[in-house]
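Re: weekly structure request thread

Next one in the queue (189 aa):
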Amino acid sequence: MNGKAINSEFFDLIEKCKKGERGAQKKLYTSHYGFAMSICLRYCKTKEEGEEVLNNAFLKVFKNLERYDSSHSFKNWFKRILINASIDFYRSQQKHYYHQDINTAFSLKSNLQNAEGDLGHDELMCLVHELPMAYRTNFCLFAIDGFSHDEISKKLGISIGTSKSNVSRARKVLREKLVSIAERSNIIK
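Done, posted below.
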């Protein structure tokens, strides 16, 4: 199957979703679940929260498919919706996240290194996931998803200085964890 046939198939699927066909919506959901969940888990504390955000984002997708411009990437459009749904969820839960025990937030899982002592993507994301929610959200928006501090401050309702501070503190905590792991695996002597 060539690229044009795949694109045609995808756009047919989108058109069916716009018409509210449940089978097409299920196919779009299952085909994009992994991609969507990987983004939601950057911003959510648990898998259950991630699934809640993911489902809210898919509802927004199905309600707003008429706004999707097929001349642009669907994944980029969808990613923006996922990030915004994650931020909305973060804002609604923010007061609960500050009650987190700091020792628990910075605990290090013992299985973070592989046989070579190098950290892979999954292990690094595990470290990011251990950050307190404010740090993690700011760090992911800035370092992973490429938002500016100005954009982050507007999205989260915080000052630009707070955004910069949270990213800086997240980097410091991550750096300390990486040094600790390296020391334990005798990479640094």
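Residues 100-189 form a domain with the Arc Repressor Mutant, subunit A fold (CATH 1.10.10.10). Residues 98-117 have pLDDT under 50 and may be disordered.
Next request, please.
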